[in-house]
């Protein structure tokens, strides 16, 4: 399974230009025979949180329409990172996923809001997990700060996820946490982690990429890229079972001790 990680710069408060960029990146990923293309967090507006009233995607309609049509035209699965959305006068940080038939197969609102970037002042948190299927593989998706909550990721893996997608806008000053947490989540859950961060800067933060793909045994298949562009990795999904049979963490769990 070939994965295209789109480590893009995001134009602050400029959804129109960002939509154009997404279209170009999907075309490029499809030309390179990717099975799944993955985008970073809040790629439509960036963290222009005080401008969401005029900029957020109403009911996510523009995003859903674009990714469904691109997915169908190019026969590619799209994990569309996340976008700022507006629903019933409230704002959310929302992930949509389109499969290669052009069906929207997932919608997820970021569950843990990040106070250092003032999300809690503008956004509502989601309450539901995010499990979906792409090419017969069960996947899960969380967003950026959700990564710091191992119990949340574990919940997705216990629901069957073999790949966890983590779109992000994770600032450069904590990039060491990002790398360590991603590798830990892959090893403890014996699954693939595909994590896509942005590059560039906004008025408050700088972002230096370091998108990562980590295998179930903890091998890092992608890291240390700091430029914008698409980075490709191939996943061997049989690794998930191989690692779980080698160290049977899931059958050794003592659920009764964790209440
Ligand atoms: N956009 C985010 O959720 C950032 C999370 C982050 O930077 C962290 O350190 O956690």
UniProtKB/TrEMBL annotation:
<dbReference type="GO" id="GO:0016787">
    <property type="term" value="F:hydrolase activity"/>
</dbReference>
<feature type="domain" description="CN hydrolase">
    <location>
        <begin position="1"/>
        <end position="237"/>
    </location>
</feature>
<comment type="similarity">
    <text>Belongs to the carbon-nitrogen hydrolase superfamily. NIT1/NIT2 family.</text>
</comment>
<dbReference type="InterPro" id="IPR036526">
    <property type="entry name" value="C-N_Hydrolase_sf"/>
</dbReference>
<dbReference type="InterPro" id="IPR003010">
    <property type="entry name" value="C-N_Hydrolase"/>
</dbReference>
<protein>
    <submittedName>
        <fullName>Carbon-nitrogen family hydrolase</fullName>
    </submittedName>
</protein>
<keyword id="KW-0378">Hydrolase</keyword>
<dbReference type="Pfam" id="PF00795">
    <property type="entry name" value="CN_hydrolase"/>
</dbReference>
<dbReference type="InterPro" id="IPR001110">
    <property type="entry name" value="UPF0012_CS"/>
</dbReference>
